[in-house]
Structure formats: structure tokens, C-alpha cells
Design a protein that fits this description.
4 copies of one chain form a homotetramer.
Chain A (H helix, E strand, L loop, with lengths): L6 H22 L6 H8 L3 H7 L3 H26 L4 H10 L13 H10 L4 H27 L9 H21 L2 H4 L1 H16 L7
The first copy, chain A, binds a DNA duplex (21 and 21 nucleotides) through helix 1 and helix 3.
DNA sequence: CATGAATGAGAATTCATTCAT
DNA sequence: CATGAATGAATTCTCATTCAT
């Protein structure tokens, strides 16, 4: 009744395919990646691959979900540790643990953009994208709202609008970073300026970093 | 022998293909558009189409160039008329004639993003994207610099950094607008907030809209 | 070592697979049915299924054999009970117990036709089909011959030819019934006409039902 | 504007593909035939084949239509020439020009049966099959009706029912002929018996062979 | 015996691009 | 110049069957 191959093995295999696929997607991008690429990278047969993921879209979404889980855990952890201030918490969520603008970017980000842009006319994909957007939005908006209630942030602007702007900016950066070489995007400088923007919008005084 | 067909005719034919193709790219996006789509929309034969544009990429770039020309002319014209202030000029370039944030977006924008994102590993395309980025950057940077020299803008930030951020923000908006329904992006609200910040960063007084 | 699992159990398992498979073949037809369909319907694992039947063909033939056994038993039983007349016996074998044309048809018939038609170029399948044909033919032919010897049937036509015609007609009906909706085939009317045909061929007088 | 390749050439090419495909379908049957088979037999490239027929189903239906046209013309021609009697006309339509049961059968018949049987759960195919059935039915039914009105045929049975039985019988013969070797089907003997009965049912006199 | 993961041959279909007319 | 027939490389996906556990 129970599978002869340990469930652990299955999970590992799935994970290894996912990992290999992630690498492939990073290298070739979503559109250019073929199932053959993944097969070769993961060392799986055609049928084996399709056993785990019924098509490229499914495969990519699985990767997205994985990422989501990681992010979620991370931000949750952050939330708890960062008692100092809502501002600091926000910075942590945006820039990671050290709350400081840096040069690192999710290497899969370009493919993600591709995935959603090329699929913008597909109902299913679109809905999926919207759900993800809402989730991200909520995280930022909630913190901002709490900060406003706690009196740390000013209420001049809707928490929602600011949250949206955070996403917009991050998306914009990801986009430019995907297309342009680092020396043209100047991730760090732009991020710093953006932090100032947020500081202005949330706190008002010019106490930038 | 002089050409059989008047050069004028050729130009017109080319323009009509370009126009039809633009519509097709807007509707289907870059990747999903096939040469057949364009042929049908433009009422050209396969061979005819290839006579003018040697492949899909070439065709799309031609459309991009056309757009560039229009924009260039427009901004040049704007430049001349807008004697009032550099601020007003900047707004005009960003938001068009009326210098006011609105809901309109270049309908071809999503396809442009597609074009550059999916082609990010292609040397040729990448170089082309960079050139375009530089051109856009220069326009914003120049105005900001001039505004700074004229004393209208403060020099707290590098003109260049602000110019980049403008592009990043616009790209981010375009991206989200491509993927999400308008009620989720809130183009106008986001734009207004951004303008407010720009005003703060360049001029300083908190004279929000 | 004696077998671990009782032979009874094995038989039952086999029978349950066969039953489930029959349902699947009826629903999807022979070609469209996949082993997966059968597995799911029978609640057997892939390996389990192959333990009992080494491939789809084997599985289907097993079903055919089962059917054959049933039919054989049935007709044998009929043979014994029906002492009234050879005519009545013939009707019973063709139309079942009540010896009357009705609307019922073997639901598996369409798949059987598929099986033999699509496999007509396969030596093995062809031979199998021929054997079955011969068996069916013999049953009809024997009764007719006996009826002729008993003087009940006239000898104008070869028993063999009439027997063949019975099969041809039944096959034709099964075929049309498989393809067309009942209201187009008119099973009953056609059957009645056919009975008349037989009556004509065997007895001659127009004493139709 | 007009094609550079003569329309004649196009038709010929299409016809040649159709002819080659017919041969392939006769040899392998509908299901087993692949587009590759057709390509090779017709000496067309993959793309070329798909230019003319968008898939296997389309291709096969085109062949069916061709056949229909031929048959239609033939029967129409027959209709006109055969002034002798309705009976003779009927025989001509069933058995061809010479109005005599013989051993010839449409070599494509098995594939046709396959096509409709394996596609019996497909809405489109089913509808197509029904349409064809109706057409065939009408031809037979009309003649019988006319014969009845002319007093040549008796009205004991509905023209419609007899027409259906003719089709059923022919289908049954085609089926058995597809599966069994000629010496088992005995096309000729069966046909003769059937004709005899038809004669009895329509005319009544027992003028058997 | 049972299990179901893994295999891989094979089929269908699409589309950019070429080239004879 | 214009035309559209022809090409064929590429890709996706399916499924019967095998075999290690």
C-alpha cells in the first residue's frame, strides 16, 4: 500500500528537480527554457519530469511557491525579532536581515517578470499574479498601518498607497536590473534614494540614512 | 532604370505595416505575436512582410524607433514651449502635455517590457536596450542638471540618481500596469505620491498637491 | 512453501480488475482507454495490474473470454430448455431468453469492434478474431443444420450462408448502434425485419412475427 | 495578388497528397497512420502537409469528401441511365455499375469504420458520421419510395426501414470483410442471399436464384 | 506478490524563414 | 518587387512497459 520508495526520497527528488529547474530558469529565462533543458539539468527522463510537474507552467509555479514559503518564513521570523521599530521592520522586509540597501537581487526575478508579463493575457496566470501581488501588498500595508496606529508613522498618505509604491519601486528595480548591467542600474544608490522617499512619506522629517 | 514604385509608396506601405503590427503586438504581446498575425492585420503577404522587415525582432525594433521619434519630437517641442519652469518641463516629459498624473499608459509598454526581458540574454537586444535606457536617462538628467544650475532645483542629490529613479518608477508602474488590472495598480495615486516626493527631493518645500 | 495468498483471493482480485476494466472500456472505448484508467477504476497499482495482465491487449482479451464463457453457458442452457422448435432456439440465441427483438445491446460491443478493426493488420489479433468468428458461426450453423435435418427449415440455402448472414447483420447493427444514436438506428424495427428475412430464408412462408 | 503557382498546380498537389494519404490509410488504417507516414508517402514536408490539412482528422475527412463526390456523381449518372426499373437502379447503387454482387469492396472501408468507431465519443466526429448516414439513407429510401409510388415495389414495409437495413447489411459486410479473410466472409454468397430477400420484401415473388 | 517511480520512444503541431515563380 | 508554397527544426506531451525496492 505504501510506496516502496521512501517518501523522503520522493521529496528529495522533487526538490532536486526544482533546484535544477531553478538554475535553468535563471540561466535561460522562462520562455527560452524547455523541458529538455530541465530534464538534462536534473538528470531526469522526460516521463520522470512530467510525473512531478505536468508542464512548464506547473513547474515554474512550484518554484514560485517554494520561494514564497521561504520568504514568508523569513519575514515572519523578522517580524518577531525586530522589536526596535516599525521602520526597521519595514527595512528588514524590503532589504533582508540587515535592513540595508545592497546589490543583491533574487536571481530568479527576471524570469518571474517574464512569467507574468508574457502570461498577462492568460486568465489563469493573471489571477495567480494578482493573488501574489495582494499577498505582498498586505505584508507592507499591514506594517505601515500598525506603524501609523502606533504613532510612529504619519498618516498623511494611505498605508495602501505607500505599500503599492514599495512594490512598484521594487518591481522597477528588478526589471531594470534584469535588463541592464549593474553599473547602469546603480541598485544601491537608487535604493538609498528610495529609502529616503519612504522616510519622507512615512515620517516626514528629513532624517534620511 | 529608376525605381518602378515611387519611394513615397514604399514609405507608406512600410508605415501601414508598422501601424498594423503595432496593433497586433499590443493585442498579443511580443512573444505570442506571429508573423502570420502581422501579415493578416497588415494585409501583406509573407514575402512582402519580409521585404520590409527581415524578422520579428527587426519589425518590433522599427516600431520602437518610430515611438522614439515621436517622443523625441514631442519632448523637444515641450522643451521649447515650457518656459515656465524646469519642474513643469519635467512633469511634461513624464506625464505628457498636461503635466499631470493620469491613467493613460503607452499600450505598447507591456510588449516592450516583454521584448527586453525575454531578450535579456541576447547580446544584440541587450545592447539595444541599454542604448535606449541611456537616451531616456539623459533626457531626465539633463533637465534636472539644468534646473540645478539655474538654481531652481537643489543639489542635495545627483541629477543622475534622481533621473534613474524616475525611470525605475515608471518602469515599475508600467510593469504592474501590464500585469494587474487598473484598480490594483492605482496609477494616479502612486504617481501623485511620487511627484510629491520628487518635488521634495528637487525643491524641498513640502508643497504637496 | 505454499502460496502466501489464497488462490481464491487471486481469482477474486482478477475478477474485480476485469469488471472495473470492462466498465472503463465501455466508457472510453478500446483505443482511448489507458492502463491508468483501468488502474484507477480497479484500485490496483500499475505493477499489480501488469501482474495479472501483461498488456492492454491481454486484458481486453481476458474480458472477451469471460464474455464468451457467459454466452456459451447461456446458449447451452437455452439449448436445453428450448425444446419447442429450432426456430425458437435460434431466436433465443440471437435475442436472448425472451427470443424477441429489443433495444438492448452489449455495451461492450463498440469496443470489441474497435479492438478487431484497429488490430486487423496484427497477425495475432486477426487470428484471434477469426477464431471467435468461427465459434459464433458454428453455433448458428449447427442449429440451422439440425433444423434442416429435422425438416423444420428448408434447405434452399446453405446453413452456413445463413449463419454468416446472421453474424453480418448483428455486426452491422452493433456498428451502427455504436456510432449512431438509437433514434437513427431503429434497432427494433430493423431486428424485426431481419427476423422476417431469416424466416424467409429458413421457412419460406411469410408467417412473420 | 494572384498566386505565383498556378491554381492547377495547387489542386494537383493537394490531390496527390490526398491520393498518397489514401494509400497510407488503406495500408495502416486510420489510427495507426501517422502524419509522418503521409509525409513520406506524399513526398511532402511536415509543414507542407499541414499547409493543406490541419490535422489527421481533417485530412481523412477530405478523403471522405472526395469519395462522397465520386459516389454522388456515379449514382447520379446511374440514376439517369437506368431507366429499366427501380429495382435495377437500387442494385446499381448498392453493387455498382453492373448491379451484381461481387467480391469488390472499397479498400478504404475498414479505415472509415475505424474512423467513426474510435471517434464515437467525439461530438464533432459523431455529428459528421450521422450526417453521412442520413445522406446514404436518403438515397436508398428515396428510390424505394419512388419505386413504391410507381407500383413497382410493394408497400408492405416502410421504405425507411428497408433502407436502414440495406445500410446495416452493407456495414456488417464491410466490417467482417475488414476483419476476416475473404474466404470466411463469403461476400458474394451473402450478398446474393440478401438480394434475394430484398427482392422478396420489395416485390414479393419468390424468384430466387 | 505488490508498488509506483522511472523510462523513452513517438506523435502532433507550430512557426520563422527561404526561395522559385 | 510581390507572392505564398514549402521547409524542417523545435517543442510539448502521452503512455505502455519495466524494474528496483
Amino acid at each position: 500500500m505504501s510506496p516502496r520508495v521512501s517518501e523522503e526520497h520522493l521529496k528529495q527528488r522533487r526538490a532536486s528537480i526544482l533546484k535544477a529547474a531553478t538554475g535553468v530558469f535563471i540561466e535561460h529565462g522562462y520562455e527560452k527554457t524547455t523541458m529538455k533543458h530541465v530534464m538534462d539539468a536534473a538528470g531526469v527522463s522526460r516521463g520522470g519530469l512530467y510525473q512531478y510537474f505536468s508542464n512548464k507552467e506547473d513547474l515554474f509555479e512550484a518554484i514560485l511557491e517554494e520561494g514564497l514559503n521561504e520568504e514568508a518564513e523569513q519575514s515572519l521570523a523578522s517580524l518577531k525579532k525586530s522589536s526596535t521599530s516599525y521602520w526597521h521592520l519595514l527595512m528588514q522586509i524590503i532589504f533582508g536581515e540587515d535592513a540595508t540597501p545592497d546589490t543583491n537581487m533574487d536571481p530568479l526575478a527576471p524570469s518571474k517578470l517574464e512569467f507574468f508579463i508574457t502570461g498577462r493575457n492568460d486568465e489563469r496566470r493573471r489571477a495567480y499574479g494578482e493573488r501574489r501581488y495582494e499577498m505582498g501588498l498586505k505584508i507592507y500595508a499591514d506594517i505601515i498601518k500598525e506603524g501609523q496606529q502606533a504613532g510612529e508613522f504619519r498618516t498623511t498618505h494611505h498605508a495602501d498607497t505607500i505599500a503599492r509604491s514599495i512594490i512598484t519601486f521594487i518591481d522597477g528595480l528588478a526589471l531594470d536590473h534584469a535588463i541592464l548591467p549593474e553599473e547602469k542600474v546603480r541598485l544601491k544608490e537608487q535604493s538609498e534614494l528610495f529609502v529616503q522617499y519612504l522616510n519622507y512619506a512615512l515620517i516626514g522629517a528629513d532624517s534620511s540614512s
